[in-house]
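Narrative summary of target 7.
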Amino acid sequence: MAKITVIADFSAFASLSQYAQRTVFDECYRVLKTGREAWIYDGCPEVFTTAADRRKLNEKYGFLVSRLGRRVSMLHGFTGEEYQTVIKGMLEQTAFKGHYQMALTDIWMKITLKKRK
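Modeled conformation, tokenized:
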């Protein structure tokens, strides 16, 4: 049975300074038990680039939720390129180096950080 030690859900992670973002990563590493994961979710506005993408999210979550998600991600999210350059570069400088994943999940970018054994 899996145990969850930390789940961090920041819909405004992109609003933090790079110093604060790095501090979040360092603090996650500090408090995680060995072999456990931290999850950080942040908006990613690129999921709303086409009308078909917007329709799909509208059908899945309803008009209000998909509309609200779009607004939040436009205000607070990184682009996919920023995740692959800025955030990835920052993670490579932390104790999580080589032990993280980034995956687009619906309207959110999920960053999974794993503390090595």
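The chain has a mean pLDDT of 81.
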